[in-house]
Structure formats: structure tokens, C-alpha cells
Write a structure and sequence with these properties.
α2 crosses α10 and α6 (110-138) runs parallel beside α12. This protein has twelve helices and eight strands. The model is unreliable at 6-37 (pLDDT under 50). It starts with a helix and ends with a helix. The strands form three sheets. A three-stranded antiparallel β-sheet has the order 3-8-7. By secondary structure, it is an alpha+beta fold.
Length: 357
Amino acid sequence: MDLKQETRKTGSTWLQLGALAVFILAKGKSLLALFKLGKFGGALVSMAASIGAYALLYPWGFAAGFVLLLFIHELGHVIAAKRKGLPVSAPVFIPFVGALINMRRHPRDAATEAYMAFGGPLWGTVGAMAVFALAHILDHQLLYAISYVGFFLNLINLLPIHPLDGGRIATAVTRWLWLIGLIGGLVVIIYLKSFLFFIIWALFAYDLYKKYIKKEKNEIDLEDKDSFLIPVQHLLDQGFPLPGPHHRRGLDWTTYSTLDGQQFVKLRWDSMELEGTIPLKQQGIVKQVYTTSIEQVPKDDVMYLRVHCQVDSTLYENDAYYEVPAATRWKFGIGYVVLAAFLAGMMYLTHEYSNLT
């Protein structure tokens, strides 16, 4: 078995659905809503769906092992985020694309972003090492193939291109690594012949062009949503008309931030006696707060309204975000280089061992 050829074929096949992948990633929040089956229910269901999808192209054993390594990689991000106090969802798997986690609050500085990004390839490498060790003990070609693909994908993920993990680690090392990512990305595109990777690279290149060549301010629109359940039976008893399901109105609001940088929007609807607070995932400049829909919820002979609200804002770009202490930059830089070299070495070693069997 030629592991390099098999890996190239694997990467080329499941990364070809680029247009579909970009659409799915753009609708990631909607997809996550489909899997509200408990804390890990969505992860298990989407894992099973991914294994089934990959099994249409590859042996069941390879499909299961590949998805398991993806799970370990994403679990690394989850653990790193939890260690930094960032709330995240369990992983959700998307066939032929990979996996994603939903961040309920984003990092406040580049060092935290890099720490969370590093967790994925680090744990992914540990997972691939475990498969490699098992392959060596059992002298099993399929396990060698799975471990090789695991090392390969974690190495590709270290390429310094946003939104790959390497691009996020680069924010805490030096953003000059993004230039290396632009060149290395072209090599990967030619090697994999991947339309998806081309789209990722093109979007990254265009973003750098706008920021550093055209020097255009990139205003990013943000949306944060929440709902509130309020009793309205006393208003009904007084003959007060209740708003309909499609009622939309602007709300009074104030915003504030805690010492750790978490921003909140406090909203108020006086006539309905509604007061609520919505935490923002990222710090933003609030433009408007309004209701999007309203549901009547009868409960124990008492009428309630569930009011769905939305906060529209634009991303606040903190100039201090990229200010990272020199010692921290060196730590991430050395770790980045060592991990990339180790992954490349393990790919070579896995290929050599597999050829001996």
C-alpha cells in the first residue's frame, strides 16, 4: 500500500465538495441547532452520519478510525477552551468537511486564541500516535493508513492560514507567518487538487489584501440572539392586547462589560414589563436591539410570552488584541515548529514502517 498515494487520494476525494462545504460552514449555527439532543447527542449522531458517509467511499474500519481522530482533534479544542474559561459546544461532524464546535464566547486576546487552536493538533497528534503504536504492535496496514492520514491532516491544519489552526496560532507568534501560509497554501492546493482548500486560501488572501494592501477597514456584522419568558396573564385580565407572533419592535438597551472583557446588553420593554440581558459572543459596537418573534405559551392556566430578541452590532477591533509578551510568543513559536516537524517525521516513519510489512 502506497500511503502517500492513498492519503493524496483520500484528501482529494473528501475535500472536492468545496462549494457545498463553504455553504455548510456558513450555515454552521443552523446546523448546530438541528442536533439539540443533549450535551453529546448531536456529536454522536453526526459522528455516526459521518462514518456512514465516509464508508461509502472507504472501508468501514478506515471511516470509523478517521472520524475518531477528528473527534480527538476537536476534543483538544474543547479541553483547551474549557481551561481558558471559554464556553463551547460539543463537536458536530459534517461529512466530507470535518467537524466544528460552536463558541459561545470568543477569545479576548491572541494568546488565548492560539492556546485554544493549539489544543486541536496537539491532541490530534496524540490520537494518531496511539493508532500508530497499535498498528506497529498488530502489524496492521489499515491502522498504518489511518495514523498516516491523522498525521497528515494535523500537519495541514498547522498551515498558517485562517481559519486553520495554524493561522490562529500565528496571531500569537508573528503575523508574518501568514505570508508563509500564502505560499505554502498554493503548494497544498496543487498537491491535493482541492477546491475547498482553494476557496479557504482565496478568502484568506483576499482578507489580507484588504487589511494590509488596500488598508480597508473590515467591518464585520455580528448577531446575538436570546429569548425571554415573561408572565402576561395579568395584562390579559386587564384587557391589554398582546403582540402577535410576527411583532417586531426596537427595544431600549444599555451595554456594559465586565473586568474579564465579557460584554452584555441589557434590554427593556416597559409596556410588557420585560427586562433581560444578552451576553455577546464578541465585543461589538451595538447598533440596534429588537424583537424578532413572539410565542404565546400557556402554562398552568397562566399565559406567558416567549419573546425572541436580537442584538445587531459590528465587531470591535481591539488594537491590543495582538499584544503578546515576548516569552509567550517564543513558547508558541517553538511549540509550533516542534509539532510540525514531529508530524512530518511521523508521516515519513509511518510510510517506512508500512512498506516493511
